[in-house]
Predict the structure of Developmentally regulated GTP binding protein 1.
Amino acid sequence: MLVVLLILVNVDAERMNRTQKNKATAHHLGLLKARLAKLRRELITPKGGSGGGTGEGFDVAKTGDARVGFVGFPSVGKSTLLSNLAGVYSEVAAYEFTTLTTVPGVIRYKGAKIQLLDLPGIIEGAKDGKGRGRQVIAVARTCNLILIVLDVLKPLVHKKLIEHELEGFGIRLNKQPPNIGFKKKDKGGINFTATCAQSELDAETVKTILAEYKIHNADITLRSDATADDLIDVVEGNRVYIPCIYVLNKIDQISIEELDIIYKVPHCVPISAHHRWNFDDLLEKMWDYLRLVRIYTKPKGQLPDYTSPVVLPDGRTAVEDFCLKIHKNLIKEFKYALVWGSSVKHNPQKVGKDHILEDEDVIQLVKK
């Protein structure tokens, strides 16, 4: 079954590459893209118990306030970077494929506990089930931030290949979810609305893509200039949008002029894992991309505890989220909270459970 799926994926990909891209073929390309996305989904989530598990050494318990995954081709310095950042030993050697399982490490930075995962080297074709790539990328999907570690001497080729593998697994790097409204219904056919001009999608192409998923009744609203890939992402509904930093390792092997050029590339941090160069810059960028929010607690009649903040993820920073992070029963006893910091107009301010907290706020809970 796996071999048949692989052949079908390759055939459809080949057809897409052969098709000329213009307005007349957009309809046909949309259909091929939808078919390819469906086949890939079946490939990475096989039915039944055959090969669906994560594999020995891959199922790592999530600990700390955030999880950062190191992804890259073999022998680009991921293990050295983890060892020098977190003091964790991951087998390091000058030949390829030395890391064969997920190696976890933990660092404390600005009061937050961040789990680092050294994932085994990705090989080309991982998204099609080759090597242990399927398990590697399945773990990468659970990360809050991905560091793509590249060899500075051959960065562009590796960058493109890794991005292609991660895209095939439904991981979207440094992107926002498409601004497309999609709602299935029982009857009424396909109701297509576009609030702005579309360069690729029209009503006919949208209907063709939805028909491939056996969807014949739905409301579709395009609020931006969307592509067939955007629509497929929304229909599939299993895409993850993860921030990503490109870590260019081995900068001790290039000139200062080349280093200046690298610094201008977006989302990039040049380092030397072996010499521990530029680690401060990397950690600061990781912190910016994780967008964690630190909240300090203040017991009644005492000074705030600035040593161990409660760390909340971006988007879940209400007082209710803070209570649930400490204990799920705390919200039942909650009366109101006193907050000091940038999220309030005056210090302290009495707030309810829906108040949104900001980084380094101080909070005192009052129970019923």
